[in-house]
Automatic annotation (TrEMBL):
This is Carbamate kinase. One of its GO terms (cellular component) is cytosol. Signal peptide: none annotated. Residues 4-294 form the Aspartate/glutamate/uridylate kinase domain. SUPFAM superfamilies: Carbamate kinase-like. Belongs to the carbamate kinase family. It catalyses: hydrogencarbonate + NH4(+) + ATP = carbamoyl phosphate + ADP + H2O + H(+). The lineage of its organism: Bacteria, Bacillati, Bacillota, Bacilli, Lactobacillales. Keywords: Arginine metabolism, Kinase, Transferase. It comes from Lactovum miscens. GO terms for biological process: L-arginine deiminase pathway.
Length: 314
């Protein structure tokens, strides 16, 4: 029986210290090569989703830098769609190359621009929390606030300050029927990039909103929709830790829902960093009864061999 895994790629799978297009394409080529062992024996099919926080933030800065009456900056929902297409194209190129190199050139890769339904009354619109764009020091933040006083910045896991925008919870996918059908085809789909383009329902259809949806929450929702057997959230570390970066830090391996919820109540996981990944994993496990794993790209071989990483079970 074929095992179906939804793979949620973190920012480190795409963006390195070099923000050029070439560097990001090379990073995705490495990512694609690392994922090929998942499907090489034809006993696993993967569905890929990815984040876009750094890319959409950088794109907005580029847009604003050249904003004029004749060349106006695009709104946030459009920037999300633009980066979804941009990263989808890069991923298409990278996976096509990796598949051909590994004798699997018959597998088609298909990125899809995906709209994600959100509630226009979601309280997240009043409390921005999703980091986007580059890191700044305090003086950089102060300079930006002179020009954009309405922006909100937060300190991000000791790495500096980042702009945060509203991040409403995903309620579903507008293209859900088509997505479910596509997953059953012999293709490698790239779906809901950047969490999907956030839209709200109107009398006339759907309208984009100024937000960026957390890709891990969208991944959990998508994994439920496509009846995935596993949710694999890839990030920068091999395991989730309690007391992270302290002398008594402890890595989590197999952990139950009750245990992980207890750690959340203790405030063990950083908001905007590990916390949403853990919460998304919990949502998937609670809805499906299947396990979810949080680990790193570099640990994929060990994950395949032994199931290593942090595995959240019912």
């Amino acid at each position: 029986m074929v095992r179906r895994i939804l793979v949620a790629l973190g920012g480190n799978a795409i963006l390195t210290d070099d923000p050029t297009a070439k560097a990001q394409q090379l990073a995705l080529e490495k990512t694609a090569e690392l994922l090929i062992p998942l499907i090489k024996d034809n006993n696993v099919e993967i569905i890929v989703t990815h984040g876009n926080g750094p890319q959409v933030g950088n794109l907005l800065l580029q847009q604003l830098a050249t904003d004029s009456k004749k060349n106006p900056a695009m709104p946030l929902d459009t920037a999300v769609a633009m980066t979804q297409g941009q990263i989808g194209y890069w991923a298409l190129q990278a996976f096509t190359k990796a598949l051909k190199k590994n004798g699997m050139g018959q597998v088609d890769v298909l990125p899809v621009i995906t709209r994600t339904l959100v509630d226009k009354n979601d309280p997240a619109f009043e409390k921005p929390s999703k980091p986007i764009g580059p890191f700044y020091d305090k003086s950089g933040v102060n300079e930006l606030l002179k020009t954009y006083p309405e922006w909100t910045f937060v300190e991000d896991s000791g790495r500096g300050y980042r702009r945060v925008v509203p991040s409403p919870k995903p309620k579903g996918f507008i293209e859900s029927k088509a997505l479910a059908a596509m997953v059953s085809m012999t293709v490698l789909p790239i779906i809901s990039g950047g969490g999907g383009v956030p839209v709200v329902q109107t009398e006339d259809g759907y309208e984009g909103v100024e937000a960026v949806i957390d890709k891990d929450f969208s991944a959990a929702r998508l994994a439920e929709l496509i009846e995935a057997d596993d949710l694999l959230i890839l990030t920068a570390v091999d395991n989730v830790y309690v007391n992270f970066n302290k002398l008594d830090q402890q890595k989590l391996e197999i952990v139950t829902m009750a245990e992980i919820n207890n750690y959340i109540e203790q405030g063990q996981f950083a908001a905007g960093s590990m916390l949403p990944k853990v919460q998304a994993a919990i949502e998937f496990v609670a809805c499906t009864g299947h396990a979810a794993t949080i680990t790193s790209l570099d640990n994929l071989a060990s994950f395949l061999a032994t199931g290593s990483g942090t595995r959240i079970v019912p």
